[in-house]
Amino acid sequence: MVLFNYVLMCLIFSTTFLAVKIGVDASAPPFLSGGIRFFVAGLILFMWMLWRKKASLTLLFHKEMLITGFGLTFGTFSALYWGEQYVSSGMAAVLSATGPILVLIIQITIMRHKPSVHSLIGCVIGFIGVIIMMAPSMAVSEHSWMLIGSIVIIAGELFYAGGAIYSKRVAKRFADISPIALNASQMLYGGALLLLLSAFTEQWHFQNMLSTRALGSLLYLIVIGSMIGHSLFYWLIAKTTPIFASTWLYVSPMLALFVGVLFYRESLTWMSAVGAITILIGTAIVNYDSLKQLFEKPLRAKKRLQDVQTR
């Protein structure tokens, strides 16, 4: 069951980037689309947790929910939705995988953490991968909007990095509350902020939102992407470890590249593929210690079992 749900989660997360792309290509306002997605998904999940008596309305009155929602949902996805107007879904997925690298950079520059050698090497490799992937848009003037979109998506990952660091403190403070309820709360706030941003920056033409492609994209992202995908993620955290659940970051971006090529005829150059692989290698090296724990724990358990059997 764990393996099945893990594969399903990776497949879901790999397709959400294409779903966003389909929506914005259908002229759905990006901030409005993101706002509706997260507000509705957060509201449904939160009401479900209230019904199961695993959350209370007082949770929404804690400033931590607003701050987490600002980083993890509002900042991250306002950038992603806007950037995907000019960037392919596969490229957006890979650029979004730079989040763990930016977490490390924030820890080094702001929190004054001393990095390990392999973490620094991973940062350098990841940065080189970004340069390789963005090189074509740097060299061709007609691709300037692609370059701007890529930079905006990476900037959005800075919000994700800050939100991820802060959310660890929030999880400790609210350790007795279901992670799904915490996630629903931050999605509610993030979605509301996206709707507020949309109200001031976008014209709401609901006929665009009601087209088959835009509506299908929105429904898929609400139900499959946000509700089912994130619930599977937190289920896997509960049944395994946060490290194992987070390994989707190394699987889904590569899947997203091929999903975009196969189902949306997005172009995939050899340089894009090399850049994507380089970014993911850099991300894996940055998280070397965590991944080492993930693989060493089963080996230690197996060794202890063998020792017991030989006695």
Automatic annotation (TrEMBL):
It comes from the Bacteria. Residues 6-134, 148-287 form the EamA domain. InterPro entries: AA-Vitamin_Transporters, EamA_dom, EmrE-like. Keywords: Cell membrane, Membrane, Transmembrane, Transmembrane helix. The keyword Transmembrane applies. It is found in: Cell membrane. It is a multi-pass membrane protein. The chain crosses the membrane at residues 36-53, 65-83, 89-110, 117-139, 145-166, 187-206, 218-236, 243-264, 270-288. Signal peptide: none annotated. Belongs to the EamA transporter family. PANTHER family: INNER MEMBRANE TRANSPORTER, S-ADENOSYLMETHIONINE_S-ADENOSYLHOMOCYSTEINE TRANSPORTER. This is EamA family transporter.
